[in-house]
Write a structure and sequence with these properties.
single chain; Quinone Oxidoreductase, Chain A, domain 1; Rossmann fold; six-stranded parallel β-sheet; 16 strands; 30% helix; mRNA 3'-UTR AU-rich region binding; ADH-like_C; quinone reductase (NADPH) activity
């Protein structure tokens, strides 16, 4: 049996509870993992509250790192004792689980279990956002919302490493200072600043070629109005709630804009893409260009409190659970 955090209905953090789940032996193409650390992400919240529908009852969580304890028939990529991590597989809030082996990646020696658990989903998200959805080039000016969160702090550092000029947003001066410490050239406080006006000032009235928006409802129209003609809005999250229905004519009115709603699961669906993405992520971590900030640690049984703090915007950087 495995200790896990389950939910039987959609709702607030209170629906999360500790439960015992059966751990089956790995079948063909599968591996049994003993978790050393588990990541906490906003997608976990969306699945718990029903914004993203999952089959119930469910074990929460999508990201973890640990040790391979057994492998099924046909698994050649990994062996017992390997240090591995994964992202994008529902059911990670537990001490042991069986997963598809082709979703795992080996953890380099220079990366700890905690770092791997904290950064896989967030780091791979940043990788596809800035290297594939819009391939940021040296000299580009980009706007990145919620820059003091786990995704945002990784993004600020990686964007700076690429030679980009980073305009960040955050909800307080303390969070803005954190973003600046991690590479943001400017940070706007969306509680007090007029974001559109300030972005226009910082870009000589032109606007930016790309906005990365993981906030959703509260920032969507602002993000569009920060773009220059032919600019791209990358809407990749809903921290403030889902974006309401959109009249697409606004894209033409504001300068023939582009809008996309990407997901990690699509970008990492092929094994070759997952390996390439993970290799690039581990490279910037190992080089020191990007540091993973784990600012919150909770015991597995305290997952509900971790969700309360995440939704209450009381967290910065990355959050993990320890089984």
């Amino acid at each position: 049996m495995s200790k896990a955090i389950c939910f039987k209905e959609f709702g607030g953090p209170e629906v999360l509870g500790l439960c015992d789940v059966e751990v089956r032996s790995p079948g063909p193409g599968e591996a049994l993992i003993r978790h050393e650390a588990v990541g906490v992400n906003f997608v976990d919240v969306y699945q718990r509250n029903g914004l993203y529908k999952v089959a119930l009852p469910a074990v929460a969580g999508n990201e973890g790192a640990g040790v391979v304890e057994a492998v099924g028939e046909g698994v050649t990529l990994f062996k017992v004792g390997d240090r591995v991590a994964y992202a994008g597989a529902l059911g990670s809030y537990c001490d042991k689980r069986t997963v598809a082996a082709d979703r795992l990646v080996l953890i380099p020696d220079l990366v700890s279990f905690e770092q791997a658990a904290a950064m896989m989903l967030k780091g791979l998200t940043v990788q596809y956002l800035i290297r594939r959805t819009y391939r940021v080039q040296k000299g580009d000016t980009v706007l990145f919302h919620a820059a003091a969160g786990g995704v945002g702090l990784i993004a600020c550092q990686w964007l700076k490493h690429l030679g980009a000029r980073v305009i960040a947003t955050a909800g307080s001066e303390e969070k803005c200072e954190l973003a600046r410490q991690h590479g943001a050239d400017a940070c706007l406080n969306y509680s007090t600043d007029n974001i559109v006006e300030r972005v226009r000032e910082l870009t000589g009235g032109e606007g930016v070629p790309v906005v990365y928006d993981g906030v959703g409802k509260d920032t969507f129209e602002t993000s569009l109005r920060c773009l220059r003609p032919f600019g791209l809005l990358v809407s990749f999250g809903n921290a403030s709630g889902p974006v309401p229905p959109v009249d697409l004519s606004i894209l033409s009115q504001l300068g023939s804009l582009y809008l996309t709603r990407p997901t990690l699961n699509t970008y990492a669906a092929r094994r070759a893409d997952l390996e390439q993405m993970a290799a690039e992520l581990f490279e910037v971590i190992a080089s020191g260009a990007v540091k993973v900030e784990i600012n919150q640690r909770y015991a597995l049984q305290d997952a509900a409190q971790a969700h309360r703090d995440l939704e209450g915007r009381k967290t910065t950087g990355c959050t993990i659970l320890l089984p």
